[in-house]
Amino acid sequence: MEFIDYYKLLELEKSASQADIKKAYRKLARKYHPDLNPNDKEAQAKFQQINEAHEVLSDPEKRKKYDEYGKDWQHADQFEQARSQQQQSGSTGYGNFGGGKGYSYSGDFEDDTFSDFFEQMFGGGARNSGSGRGTQFKGQDFNAELQLNLSDVYTSQKQTFTLNGKKIRLTIPAGVENGQTIKIRNHGAPGIKGGPKGDLFITFNIINNTKFKREKEHLYSTEEIELYTALLGGEVTVDTFDGKVKLKVKPETLSDSRVKLKGKGFPKYKKEEQFGDLFITYKIKMPSNLSEREKELFRELQKLRS
Amino acid sequence: MTSEDLIPAEEICTLYKVERTFISSLYESGLIEIVTVERKEYVPCDHLRNFEKMMRLHKDLDINIEGLQAIHHLLDQVQKLQKQNVRLKNRLSLYES
């Protein structure tokens, strides 16, 4: 466990007054407050550190202990014992550090927001025991990421997963997008003093395990067609998301030309039985390893065109 | 909206230890909604999260109502940009092999 320099964290000199501490805390808190930095875990971690530093330095008792023992804080208790034995009246009494600010938070915080350093030095009871600025009653919100394959979200499906030891059943609507976040009410941490439960936010990370590219409800793919089919027209069998279909190819189809298969795309999110389109780009496959006869015929065709 | 979706404003004041005027100011600034049913005022559940956010910013950072309005607006913009960013990233993946 490393020593944490609370003064450095708040960018303060050791001689800083209470007003300086408050000012420095406010300045940094405005920068790193989790409500001002949504989904920024780094800012949240930094805010926790600042909060902890403020908790200690703004409390004269805690600050005194911190200043006195500094890097030797681990031996503070032994020092205390030796001191109290020397002073038979035993009136120094650093033991009770109750009356902290009680900072609890319903944002995207981990449960244990104070460092091991803080816990070791001031004990677990040093926080959340006071009258409390920022006391919250709504439970903590949870954030989770769910990884799914693209083929999984083609249809609505029920999934059960475990979060913080609790089983949660979830119906994932077809057509959910990569990076999309859904809120599940009252599936966060329990509220405090009868307050409402927090919410659960699930962000979907969708891995494309198919040959199709997707943009919202539309799908895109490429299909190779033979040169002769492209020139003379014909039929090809192409893949769609839910099976193969036969397509007529017009004569003299150019490479990179695109056809649209209406309603053969991806389901529209929360719109039952509505689908996007599938766009197929044709790539013409050139014949290779031509025989002498084939070359001869191509030369003849060339002569006809010139 | 059913009655279950509404929280009495008085209850919020007691639970969150805020002045009634704070809720009124948030309402007047368009930061939360207040519904009046039979002369009693309620905050819709959907607005509770926003209310809590504003309350934290107000209490933790000493931000006044005008500041909260500005923050609310900017956070809205950030959220829109983040969503747009996700959309564009998804779109970009169309062109990446």
Automatic annotation (TrEMBL), chain A:
This is J domain-containing protein. Gene3D superfamilies: DnaJ domain, Urease metallochaperone UreE, N-terminal domain. It holds the Pfam family DnaJ. Keywords: Chaperone. Residues 5-70 form the J domain. The keyword Lyase does not apply. It comes from Autumnicola psychrophila. The keyword Chaperone applies.
UniProtKB/TrEMBL annotation, chain B:
It comes from the Bacteria. The lineage of its organism: Bacteria, Pseudomonadati, Bacteroidota, Flavobacteriia, Flavobacteriales. It holds the Pfam family MerR_2. This is Chaperone modulator CbpM. It comes from Autumnicola psychrophila.
